[in-house]
């Protein structure tokens, strides 16, 4: 039996569950998804979480009109956190990939691939460090 942990992660991220009016109802429009992952930023910094260290009006506005997390588990460093986010699995479940790598066996079931199959267009910006871009271009 094949697990679908990424589907569960997608449902949690999007807040999309089966509509209460019955399974035949489909939303007229899909919600937009903007997921921001920042290294070394705690909730005490962002205004939407009660922080006052910096003014964050744009992020506060996004949080007011969307979904924000109040509890989360993360890895102690960034690479395994990114692997878990993309795969929906803990790194040990994927053989503990080395820094700068992503397991080939998990490439087809990444969060962006699941979103594409659901009809979304996806993009990424910033560092991911999941490929060292040596011989794996192609």
Shape: globular
| Main sheet makeup | none
Q: Name the assembly state.
A: single chain
Radius of gyration: 17 Å
Number of helices: 4
Beta-strand residue percentage: under 5%
Any key phrases for this structure?
disordered N terminus; mainly alpha; 138 residues
Describe this entry's structure for a reader:
With about 140 residues, this protein is mainly α. The protein is about 25% helix and about 0% strand. It has four helices and no strands. The chain has helices at about 5-15, 55-65, 80-85, 110-115. The longest helix is centred in the first third of the chain and has 10 residues, at about 5-15. Residues about 1-25 have low confidence and may be disordered.
